[in-house]
């Protein structure tokens, strides 16, 4: 049954026309042959433009065989010659279950102040414990303790103590590593790299006639990527 206008809790298209995107344009000759170099240029511009936390990114996964999708915001921590790296719990969380059944994921960056977004799709791969330890050692001690303590996404029943259960786990880990600054990275926690097969760069334009360019992996090409302009 179709919803009536009166029954809609939110309807944003009835009071005023949407804002127009006017801050830039994107042409083929402005693009680097490599999506990694292009992303680095756009990320640097976003950061230098004063955008708060330009590394914030929506990370989406899907479980198989159901095909149900889940999304959450995380931080991009690294970009290397292979792909985009985030860090998280890969044993207890929903995203951990998803990537075990389906080793593909997507990332979506949105930088409102410069009217740009970037989408990434590709296969995921875990970093080694040795690689993850390098980043883990840079975290505050409380965050390192938290990585050990939190059974991410496990239900904390209020009748059993709710948050007090979590804080109890934290105290147990603090006692375990009391007086120690060097803490090993948990085996269930670490880096995940999204190795892109597709990267799209989107620049907002007036009248929703945006500039969109898609990089597709093409091992037969000179640079390993094919670049296509997409209709908005």
Compact description:
The chain has 232 residues and is of the alpha+beta class.
Question: What is this structure's SSE topology?
Answer:
Layout: H1 35-48, E1 56-62, E2 69-75, E3 78-79, E4 84-89, H2 94-101, E5 104-111, E6 116-126, H3 129-136, H4 141-149, H5 163-176, E7 189-203, E8 211-217, E9 225-230
Antiparallel strand pairs: 1-2, 1-5, 3-4, 4-7, 5-6, 6-7, 7-8, 8-9
Helix pairs in contact: 4-5
Q: Which descriptors apply to this entry?
A:
232 residues; alpha+beta; nine-stranded antiparallel β-sheet; 5 helices; 30% strand
Provide a descriptive summary of the structure in words.
The structure is a single chain. With 232 residues, the protein is α+β, with helices and mostly antiparallel strands. It contains 5 helices and 9 strands. Strand 1 and strand 2 (69-75) form a beta hairpin. The chain starts with 34 loop residues before the first helix and ends with a strand. The mean pLDDT is 93.
Q: How big is the Rg? A: 21 Å
Distance from N terminus to C terminus (CA atoms, Å) equals: 31 Å
**Outline type:** globular
Q: Order of SSEs, N→C?
A: HEEEEHEEHHHEEE
- Overall SS class: alpha+beta
The parts where pLDDT drops under 50 for at least 5 residues are: none
Percent of residues in helices comes to: 10-25%
Mean pLDDT: 93
Could you give the count of β-strands?
9
Strand content: 25-35%
**How many H/I helical runs?**
5
Sheet with the most strands? 9 strands, antiparallel
């Amino acid at each position: 049954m179709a919803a009536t206008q009166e029954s809609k809790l939110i309807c944003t298209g009835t009071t005023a026309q949407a804002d127009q995107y006017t801050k830039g344009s994107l042409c083929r000759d402005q693009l680097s042959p490599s999506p990694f170099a292009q992303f680095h240029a756009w990320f640097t511009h976003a950061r230098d433009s004063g955008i708060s936390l330009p590394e914030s990114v929506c990370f989406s996964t899907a479980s198989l065989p159901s095909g149900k999708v889940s999304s959450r915001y995380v931080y991009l921590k690294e970009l290397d010659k292979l792909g985009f790296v985030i860090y998280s719990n890969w044993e207890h969380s929903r995203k951990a279950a998803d990537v075990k059944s389906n080793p593909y994921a997507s990332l979506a960056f949105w930088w409102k102040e410069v009217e740009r977004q970037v989408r990434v799709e590709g296969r995921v791969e875990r970093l080694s414990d040795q690689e993850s330890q390098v980043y883990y050692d840079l975290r505050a001690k409380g965050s390192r303790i938290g990585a050990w303590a939190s059974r991410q996404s496990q239900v904390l029943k209020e009748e059993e103590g709710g948050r007090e259960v979590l804080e109890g786990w934290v105290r147990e880990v603090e006692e375990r590593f009391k007086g120690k600054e060097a803490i090993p990275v948990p085996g269930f926690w670490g880096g995940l790299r999204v190795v892109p097969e597709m990267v799209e760069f989107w620049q907002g334009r007036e009248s929703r006639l945006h500039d969109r360019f898609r990089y597709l992996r093409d091992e037969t090409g000179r640079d390993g990527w094919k670049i296509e302009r997409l209709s908005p």
